[in-house]
Amino acid sequence: MDSSRKFLIISVSAAVLLIILVSCTLAYSGRDNTLMSDKTLSFEINGFNVELPLSENDAVYDAVSLSSVTENRIKLLNEVGATVKINDRGIGAGTTMDLKLESLSANQLIKIQVSNEKDQRTIYLRTLSAQLPNIIAAGESSYEGNYFTTIATGGAALYELNNKGEVVFYIAKSPERANGESYRDFKKHVLENGTVRYSYQRVNGDSNGIGYATGERVILDDQYKEIKTITLAQSERANAGDPVDGRDFILIDDNHYIVEASQLVLAQNVPAGLGANAMGAKVVRTLIQEVKDDQVVFEFTTDSHSEFYGLSVTDHDYSNTTSQNPDYSGFNRMIIDPTDDNLLVSFGNLNTIMKINRENGDVIWKLSGSSDEFGMSAEQKTSGQSDLAITKEGYLIVFDNALSTGQTRIQKIKLDEVNKKILDYQEYKVAGKTSLTDGSAQKIGDNIEVYTIGWGLLKDGNVAISEIDFNTGKKLLEVTLPQGITNDRVRKIK
């Protein structure tokens, strides 16, 4: 074979090889054959970003939020030059998949596989985050509804339990990720038109001793997706965007709600004899603000009622000698009375429950405390009560911490509001239980004496939730938390 033919054959072969190499390069463009160890998967899971390093095979991580009530929305945010599968289902960068979980358990994991031509990794997500406390439940409630609460001390977490005390939804962050953030007052709202909403208080750092769990109210849709946040609206008494307190919140509809906030003011109307500085006393007042269609339609402040100062039983240094921000009223709960649409409000530091006119802010009546108008006996009067509810039958349910006696109780009271009389009074106690703060009580069902109790900060013990039938004296469900970790208010809602 002459040299020219050899050269031609070699040239053609080289060209073919070059074409093959180029084709392979094009076919694998976007693929990364490097090792996984220096890469990180970025996901958005139920609205929260989650970074999952691939440095260690078989590593186990936590999501911020997962649910077994609704499907979980998972979006892969970044391209890692590899195939990604979640529970054996492929997912591409920028795409979203829905993942249904039948239950949430520390032993149930979500498997994530990542592979390219040279390397592969398998990592896992716990379905029940390790950032949640160890929740131990015994028993089972036969009454419909789930339990909603948050961790008041010991972490940044909120969760929903079913009637067996099993977690079915949560948001939980590690201390590093939370960065001082925490949560309060998680609950479900069923609006008049049947729409379901959820809300919780997102607490943003330190309030400098003014207010309780200050921050913003977060509203979630029926799929637990955040749809808006709420702070104070502009008015003569507040600036738009000022923080709200985490003690309570009423959602009437998507554009109509009631919030509460604490404000440090210089009061000039403290009655003589209470030791106030003649030039004014610094006090923390409670502001209740009702907003409809972005307009303030009602406001109430405690400092507009000078008679409240003298009712305070704690933290009322009006001379500002020892306190520069005395919270003399201690607001903790508010509900709308369905019989007249006025507000029922509990002030723990006044030992008083009041009905407030939602049109003009007048106090219609006071129950308990030193200005009680219903003739309560000394034994019936509350002491540091921290929760309030009303039944379909019109009974007032009060969680009385009873700090004066050391025996917390639930009070069931029927009032004659016209003649200012108590028509019926009953109380229920669990021996040895003293809740210092954050407790709650809710009557379950009709014509039965079954109550869901959130114990808040107990003086002794680590029981967090009890559901008790006081007719039979039996516990239906009991939930405990590790020592040093306590719940905020607990609500059971269908």
Automatic annotation (TrEMBL):
Q: Give the source's domain of life in one word.
A: Bacteria
Which Pfam families does the UniProt record give? Arylsulfotran_2
Q: InterPro entries, from UniProt?
A: Arylsulfate_ST, ASST-like, Quinoprotein_ADH-like_sf
What is this protein identified as? Answer: Arylsulfotransferase N-terminal domain-containing protein
Lineage, please?
Answer: Bacteria, Bacillati, Bacillota, Clostridia, Eubacteriales
